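Appendix B. Raw example, untouched.
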Amino acid sequence: MSDQDRYIPGVPCWADTPQPDPQAAVAFYGELFGWQFEDVMPPDAPVRYFVARRGGGDVAAVGTQADGAPPHAAWRTYVWVTDAEETADKVRAAGGRVLREPSDVGDQGRMAVCADPEGAAFCLWEAHTHRGAGVVNEHGSVNFNDLHTRDLDGARRFYGAVFGWETLDMDGWFAWALPGYGDFLEARRPGMRAGMAEMGAPERFEDVVATLQLIPGDQADLSPHWGVTFAVDDADAIAARVPELGGRVAVAPFDAPWVRMTVITDPQGVTFTASQFVPENRNAQASGAAAGA
């Protein structure tokens, strides 16, 4: 691990979306978030993989949907691990499934695709040259990775056994915390904890690595899944731009604790959340409006 790494084992580190028409997705996200793309695959490769960048740093990626992939494209969450094989064994032991065995991705790292006991898929990433996203928590970059589940207790057992995560009740919404992550962040950015305390952040917020949302009982057609929330400067402006680019606003902008959010579906049916940090909303009532993201 280099001195510049922002990840430790158990922290989501990357997100990508394999799509039926990756070029169309590149056009949509490039216009929406101001991403600049580089296709990192050889010209004669049968698939494409466009890495998105902002300010010179890697943000996320758009790729070609593989043959035999699930019919609905999605944003995938990658979790940083030290040993993909060892973690895949933990997934099996905890009642999950390994959908794709660990394998090399060139010299970039080793990847495995897994699913928790409810079927929510996620990826393991054992980093080699690719060290995850270099830009996060800024406009047009990943803000949170979000698990949507119906079985809170089962999720606690599974992700606790695999990654050592704990759940935190944040006064109406839940988060995944990794013990020791705050210590790592404080070492990288001295004063981080003091700044959070001054802002009034919830206790242990510095340990948060992802969010956890219960799927409402009236959404019987929604399967447990992992989703992605992107940080934006203006949620209303982003929502207004989406229809012009061929997407759909699934949930209009609404206020939630600390943020203003909107749920968006891209032109190929992939849903994600855009979130604007609004400190004045710290006492806003939590809402289930974003459960489909």
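End of appendix B.
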